[in-house]
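TA notes, week 10

Several of you asked for a full example with nothing omitted. So below is the full record: structure tokens for the whole chain, then the designed sequence directly under it. When grading your own attempts, check the secondary structure regions first.
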């Protein structure tokens, strides 16, 4: 199977060499890799150039964007810049972060997943991060049927059906919901261990939680599902403030009449899907 990889990279000099090296040694090589140098001020561009000099299938594009970290929009804007460089001759497409290391058989296995079942629309493995003792441990904050945004592979049919990636906070949740709306399934493979070199931040970020609440509004969760999701999030993270901040973000978005990122029909499906999962967990 033929596949393309797009890697948004903003000041990733510390990790990019290892990430690109893990792509370069894949047993099933990519047809094209586009690395988007997103307004970097470190040695990111030099690292990309060193790989483009050695590998004809790797190319670089420089993009100008804000230096401010904008969850969702910044990375998806960079991804879309890379997408503009690619044609339609692929079987699946990958959004990859610049701070991960893949096992060398990763995409050979992903290709088999897609080729074995045409209903699978999104596939991937699980992230492992280093703890304080230096041990690599599974860190997968979402449900086990979720593929982390750092290494998402989409079948071409699914990617087209969902209309690509949404330029908004929550893009890596709504893509899976819309995939299911369009009749595709999500596949996670526990044998695919992805090394995440930059662990998720432990510091509490109120702004991020407000944006998560806003994302739940724009995905048409409705208040009750947002309430339950906020409680679950706060309990899982052991941060009571997350509950209030998440709800505040939702209510602010509702007050400001923020634009939805899904249609009425998609929103109805998303709520029904969420309720089914909630009930399944309650009665398991």
């Amino acid at each position: 199977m033929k596949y393309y990889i797009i890697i948004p990279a903003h000041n990733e000099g510390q990790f990019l060499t290892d990430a690109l090296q893990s792509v370069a040694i894949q047993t099933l090589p990519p047809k094209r890799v586009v690395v988007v140098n997103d307004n970097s001020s470190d040695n990111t561009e030099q690292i990309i150039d060193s790989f483009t000099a050695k590998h004809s299938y790797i190319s670089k594009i420089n993009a100008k964007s804000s230096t401010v970290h904008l969850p969702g929009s910044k990375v998806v804007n960079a991804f879309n810049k890379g997408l503009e460089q690619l044609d339609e001759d692929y079987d699946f497409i990958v959004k990859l972060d610049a701070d991960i290391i893949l096992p060398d058989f990763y995409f050979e296995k992903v290709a088999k997943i897609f080729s074995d079942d045409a209903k699978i629309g999104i596939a991937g493995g699980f992230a492992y991060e280093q703890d304080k003792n230096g041990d690599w441990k599974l860190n997968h904050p979402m449900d086990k049927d979720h593929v982390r945004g750092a290494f998402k592979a989409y079948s071409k049919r699914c990617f087209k059906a969902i209309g690509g990636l949404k330029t908004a906070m929550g893009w890596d949740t709504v893509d899976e919901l819309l995939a299911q709306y369009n009749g595709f399934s999500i596949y996670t493979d526990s044998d695919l261990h992805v090394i995440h070199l930059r662990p998720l931040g432990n510091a509490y970020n109120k702004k991020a939680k407000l944006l998560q609440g806003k994302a739940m509004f724009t995905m048409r969760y409705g208040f009750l599902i947002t309430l339950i999701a906020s409680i679950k999030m706060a309990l899982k993270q052991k941060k009571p403030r997350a509950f209030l901040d998440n709800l505040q973000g939702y209510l602010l978005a509702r007050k400001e009449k923020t634009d939805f990122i899904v249609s009425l029909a998609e929103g109805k499906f998303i709520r029904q899907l969420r309720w089914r999962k909630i009930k399944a967990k309650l009665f398991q």
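Residues 206-282 form one domain. Use that as a sanity check on your answer.
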